[in-house]
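PROTEIN DESIGN WORKSHEET
SECTION A - STRUCTURE
LENGTH: 321
TOKENS:
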């Protein structure tokens, strides 16, 4: 069998094995993220119940409450508790939505993994390596060894480019979802005061309930898209080649905060414009990250071309097909 055909088959097997490895890493990561979402739901629900109890006490009759009413303190306390409750309700809703979407992602990963026979792939790879070893014994060892090294580096570079492309797609999706969230917040920018009732979640005093749900959903869609972008960036971060290092620490960290504090700004007495500013900052971060990814992509493409040219030079000077 010709060398190029063996190399092509080897690359295909390595790509599938790389997929298995990457999916297993993402599976572990997503399982942790699901656990975190569940913990967030439990933590915020517990805090919300405590606030409900305190509000019940404020509503109940007592001489202390009478004094607070005379001084205006009770209204301030009630407003403060309601403000905190509104934030917690938003965070609970978001954590539950994240758990649902991440569980769906995990299910898709498990489905793909069950379809791939890793042991069979390893056996095919062993056979290909044995044939290539026999090839080395026939041809000039020095040139053939150099060719093997170039082929390995070429394979890693192709895998890196694949990971970058997947990250770029996820980043573009995140940017689109962020744009939709920003547009939704822009349409609601004239409304600022929200109330809460504990039997059915949030209602807006100056904004229809369906419009509020729409904004919440757009924000969630942006957040899950950012989470997926973040996970793809970690794949790029883990990949490097002998001569092409990939430093991604700077543009992986931006996704760590997501919208962790956006709901704190988006509360009863704050303006929606504050949330818009936060979305805008994340949009800038994603855009800059995509530019840096494109730069890495271009460098990887250039490096791949140089490897292929060097390999072709060996093909021309040595009797290797």
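SECTION B - SEQUENCE
RESIDUE ASSIGNMENT:
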């Amino acid at each position: 069998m010709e060398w190029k055909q063996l190399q092509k088959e080897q690359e295909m097997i390595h790509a599938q094995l790389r997929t298995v490895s990457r999916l297993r890493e993402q599976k572990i990561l997503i399982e942790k993220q699901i656990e975190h979402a569940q913990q967030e739901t439990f933590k915020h629900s517990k805090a919300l119940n405590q606030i409900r109890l305190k509000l019940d006490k404020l509503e109940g009759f007592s001489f202390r409450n009478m004094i607070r009413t005379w001084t205006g303190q009770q209204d301030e306390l009630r407003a403060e508790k309601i403000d905190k409750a509104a934030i917690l309700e938003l965070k609970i809703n978001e954590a539950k939505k994240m758990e649902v979407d991440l569980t769906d992602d995990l299910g898709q990963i498990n489905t793909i993994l069950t379809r791939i026979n890793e042991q069979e792939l390893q056996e095919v790879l062993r056979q290909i390596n044995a044939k290539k070893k026999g090839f080395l014994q026939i041809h000039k060892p020095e040139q053939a060894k150099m060719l093997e090294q170039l082929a390995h580096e070429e394979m890693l570079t192709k895998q890196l480019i694949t990971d970058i492309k997947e990250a770029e797609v996820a980043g573009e999706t995140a940017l689109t979802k962020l744009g939709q969230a920003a547009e939704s917040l822009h349409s609601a920018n004239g409304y600022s005061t929200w109330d809460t009732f504990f039997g059915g979640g949030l209602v807006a005093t100056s904004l229809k309930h369906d419009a509020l749900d729409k904004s919440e959903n757009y924000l969630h869609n942006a957040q899950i898209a950012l989470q997926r972008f973040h996970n793809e960036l970690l794949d790029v971060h883990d990949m490097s080649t002998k001569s092409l290092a990939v430093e991604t620490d700077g543009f992986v960290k931006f996704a760590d905060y997501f919208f962790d504090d956006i709901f704190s700004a988006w509360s009863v007495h704050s303006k929606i414009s504050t949330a818009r500013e936060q979305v805008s900052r994340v949009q800038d971060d994603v855009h800059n990250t995509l530019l840096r990814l494109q730069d890495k992509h271009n460098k990887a493409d250039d490096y791949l071309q140089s490897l292929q040219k060097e390999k072709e030079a060996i093909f021309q000077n040595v009797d290797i097909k």
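SECTION C - NOTES
The two ends are 9 Å apart (CA to CA).
Residues 191 and 207 are 7 Å apart (CA to CA).
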